[in-house]
């Protein structure tokens, strides 16, 4: 499965019951709905792609509500996938299902807020790890929105957990020794 920077590599975009043309790098127009790449993404998260998607409906010099967009792709979820992270410009609280939904094989996936970054949302996907699935995002009507797929986070390897446990034990031993 690709990132949004690979939008032409297997992703399909639909709105208002039909396929939407993908335009690079033309800005929003007053004609039919188009998908455009926003300027280079400068977020400090290195895992994000170079671009994010910008959805807007600019008509007669005014921003109006966009149609509901559906972005989908069929592909294999990585073997060790734990969560799928996306950037969606909304704020500190999860957007309601009317604005952002993630579905895998038609099943709604619950949304969780990233504990580390604002506007980064996580979807637990470990139940689908290693499987061929249809991944679908439904983006509800807004006057404009930015969206980017960061990618899958993976379950730490057992050796990582062992190293973490060893480091924690060493810190505990040093701290305990100092208290005496």
Describe this structure in words.
It is a single chain. By secondary structure, the protein is mostly beta strands. Helix content is 12%, strand content 38%. The protein has one helix and 13 strands; from the N terminus they run E-E-E-E-E-E-E-E-E-E-E-E-E-H. Strands 3, 4, 5, 7, 10, 11 and 13 form a seven-stranded antiparallel sheet that branches. The chain is elongated. The N terminus is likely disordered.
Descriptive keywords:
Jelly Rolls, disordered N terminus, 180 residues, 12% helix, mainly beta, single chain, 7-stranded antiparallel beta sheet, 6-stranded antiparallel beta sheet
Largest sheet: 7 strands, antiparallel
Helix content: 10-25%
CATH class: Mainly Beta
Please indicate the count of domains. 1
Structure annotation, total helices: 1
Shape, per Cα inertia axes: elongated
Strand content: 35-45%
Assign the CATH topology.
Jelly Rolls
Which architecture name does CATH use?
Sandwich
Structural class: mainly beta
Unreliable parts: 1-8, 23-48
What's the gist of this structure?
The chain has one helix and 13 strands.
Topology of helices and strands:
Elements: E1 12-15, E2 18-19, E3 36-37, E4 53-59, E5 62-64, E6 69-76, E7 81-88, E8 100-104, E9 107-109, E10 112-113, E11 120-124, E12 132-139, E13 144-154, H1 158-179
Antiparallel strand pairs: 1-2, 1-6, 3-4, 4-5, 4-13, 6-12, 7-11, 7-13, 8-9, 8-12, 10-11
